[in-house]
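Hey, quick one: can you model this chain's 3D structure?
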Amino acid sequence: MNEELIQRAKRGDDDAFFELMQLHKEKMYRIALSFLHSEQDALEAMQETTYRAYKGLKRLKKNQFFTTWLIRIVMNYCTDELRKRKRTTVQTDFVENSSVEPGFEHVELEALIAQLDVKQQQVIKLKYFHDLKIAEVADVMEVPEGTVKTWLHKALLQLRKQLEMKGEGRHA
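Sure thing. Here's the predicted structure for all 172 residues.
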């Protein structure tokens, strides 16, 4: 990450700040879309994240954690939105807006993931949809690596169990 760009942004250089946001916009969008499942909601999340980052940048203590800090803001916003909606089902409109043509299995998997505990959903999405390492997931979620591994293990067991149950239902 460009240390100088972060320093300039912290000193109030708006151009530097917006350049930082440009560098991270695709990652912010993908994370928001994976949680909110709507292009419009993901764009709104990016806008709110940009606002929150702009307001809070001076409180960032270690510049090398800028990306982790920004991801945490996106995730917090998405989690807050999901709580507000008390969402229990997966919206399928994200599939229609997605550049990838996922199969029915992908939609099924999304529905199963949506049934997991919020923390387990976050771990699964960060690890497998955004290719973060366990250590990076731990940094983003502000928990020890062991906790991430435990949540991941439990989530995978639960998903495996749900998939097995669905498989048995199809063959019955």
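One thing worth noting: The mean pLDDT is 84.
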